[in-house]
Amino acid sequence: MHVKIANVTTTHPSSLLSCKQALLTLLTLGTSLSFSSSAAPLTIVQQQAVNTHFSKLAQVQNTAEAQMTEQLQQDFNQQLTLHEHKLMKSICPKYGMTFDVSTNACLR
Predict the structure, then answer these.
(1) Inter-residue contact 1 to 12 (CB < 8 Å)
(2) Within a domain: 107
(3) Keywords, A to Z (predicted)?
(4) pLDDT at 98 over 60
(5) Is position 12 within any domain?
(6) What is the DSSP letter of 39?
(7) What is the mean pLDDT of residues 98-108?
(8) Of 37, 49, 78, 108, which sits 20 to 30 A from 98 (CA to CA)?
């Protein structure tokens, strides 16, 4: 996944893991659906194992998505702050002021 913010591009390897997990889930589900049409019904124990497997897959997927979302949010906030400061440092002198990073304001 690539995120482009103001000509700054970052690549997140965790998105590859998330995509692989989603693909694995789809393949598992597709395979189970295609086999279920010609296979004998699952026993109670087998169905419980399948349910446990899908539950674990969902938990891993949710965790990976939450981590990726948090990382993207942190990167976005960092880049936004950097570019905001850069913009203000160029605007403040036009009005005879200096930019104060601690207050995020132009000062006389």
Answers:
(1) yes
(2) yes
(3) Signal
(4) yes
(5) no
(6) S
(7) 91
(8) 78
Number of H helices, E strands in the chain: 2, 4
Residue 105, pLDDT above cutoff 70 = yes
Residue 92 covered by a domain: yes
> Residue 30: pLDDT band by 50, 70, 90 thresholds?
confident
**Domain total in the chain:** 1
- CB atoms under 10 Å from CB of 24, counted, come to 13
Question: What average pLDDT does range 21-41 have in this prediction?
Answer: 72
Conformational region of residue 7, where left means phi above 0, alpha means psi within -120 to 50, and beta covers everything else = left
Q: Is residue 24 part of a domain?
A: no
CA atoms within 13 A on the CB side of 56: 7
Report the C-alpha gap between 19 and 21 in whole angstroms: 5
